[in-house]
Amino acid sequence: MKKNRILIAAFAVIMVPAVLCAGGSKDSSAGTAVTGTKTEISFWNIGMENPDRSIMESAVNKFNKESPAYKVTNVPLQNDSYKQKLVIAMSSGECPDMYTSWTGGPMIEYIKSGYAQPLDDLFRSSGLSNRLMKAAVAQATYQGKIYAVPVLNVAIAGIFYNKEMFAKYGLSVPKTVSELERDCDVLVKNGIVPFALANRSKWTGSMYFVCLATRKGGLEPFAKAVAGTGTFTDDCFIYAGQKIQEWVKKGYFPEGVNSLSEDDGQSRQLMYQNKAAMLLCGSWYTGTFQNDSAEFYKKIGWFAFPAVDGANTDSSIQIGTVGDQFISFNCTGEKLKAAFQCVTHYSDPDTVEQMVKAVKIPPVQGVDSKITDPVVKAILASANNASAVQLWYDQYLPPAVGQTHLDTCQELFGLTMTPQQAAGKFQAAMVQYNAQKK
Asked: Which residue in 368, 248, 235, 258 sits closest to 311, CA to CA?
């Protein structure tokens, strides 16, 4: 399988010293590793911690027990460095046989570079098309062909909040941004940080930007800016930057927010210590909270990001993914068939049950009847009622542009760049990418 080296240029902005792959072949034509009497299939993903790790391992273990010829080697990697390591592996010809992504711009680059194979025939022959949510399969589709299998979770952005703290200070779930700010002001007066946020990773702060921009302007400004018919200096993006900086100045975020680490759990520790009242993040946090402390999870409620006052936009739009992690394949022939067979186990009834017990929403049809957790039911209702789901900006955008977006968002939280400057830099990166693409 000949590989296109477009990745080297497209991902140059995030290149770091090479990291050796753990197992796996360079590609299906370059020879394969053999473990005992079985041919190895390497699988990279971000399931570092439970419940995600045990879920990701479940299908792998099931496949390895039943397969006489192949063995899948599970390689969980840290979320923050995952994309960088994957790009380095691809650029050096050491791409794993299976790997997860969030689709969007990066997946398109993987496809164009020859590191993702079309799966339509396998979807049809396995019956997977009839088991998975149509919206999830649509997110894994590019130019009419399916290139990934959605697994793990329907993950949308929303605000987790401490119900006991809200009751103590007489707060109600806000429907608008002005109501949210009213709640935040009460919390600040009582010495409580409104939002637990650890923004060293940058993507955590990006969620505020995306939610605010989408609630202000809807989907069209972003789509036009990406296509080159609009601009990231649109009013909705300026508004998002202004609100973030206004909230920083009003004390809505913890001190040193850009130095706090999400991967080290510093945001949720603020919740556990009753120092913060809310946390905006993806709905995978249901499993994180419960895994950390089932007792604390009883205090948790959830609401969708509120509407911007006076904005003529559809506030049912959600931000996130219908599937959260999508598995693509860097192999062909019998090896691809075997790898795909492994992945079909993520929609098996027992694995789906495992996900539901971990308070996740597996992207399978008919899952609604299996959900009893009140927080997850609220999340699923918002997802089901959404007129559209906007993929996270940093995942949708081409990697170089996505990185600029993350960098400028962090500058906004640090008050080291104005909203206008951040928007201008964001737009310049998009223009440069579109020019190179031509």
From this structure: 235
DSSP string, 298-354: TTEEEEPPPBPTT--S-TT-EEEEEEEEEEEE---HHHHHHHHHHHHGGGSHHHHHH
pTM for the predicted model, two decimal places: 0.80
In sequence order, the β-bridge partners of residue 156 are 320
Q: Measuring CA to CA, how many Å separate 69 from each of 27, 63, 103, 391? A: 18, 11, 30, 37
Q: Which amino acid appears at position 219 of this protein?
A: L
**Separation of alpha carbons 318 and 337, rounded Å:** 34
Mean pLDDT of successive 10-residue stretches along the chain, which has 438 residues: 43 36 37 70 95 95 97 92 90 94 89 96 94 90 96 94 98 98 98 98 97 97 96 98 98 98 95 98 93 95 97 94 93 98 96 92 91 94 90 89 96 98 98 88
**Residue 8 identity:** I
Dump the DSSP string for 115-159: -S---HHHHHHHTGGGTB-HHHHHHTEETTEE--EEEEEEEEEEE
Query: Of 327, 241, 246, nearest to 59 (Cα)?
Result: 327
Q: Two tokens at 221? A: 């400004």
Alpha-carbon span 23 to 74, nearest angstrom: 9
DSSP state of 390: E
Cα distance between residue 202 and residue 160, in whole Å = 19
Beta strands in 167-263 (DSSP E): 193-195
Tell me which H or E stretch contains 109.
helix 104-112
Cβ contact 363:148 at 8 Å: no
Contact between 180 and 308 (Cβ < 8 Å): no
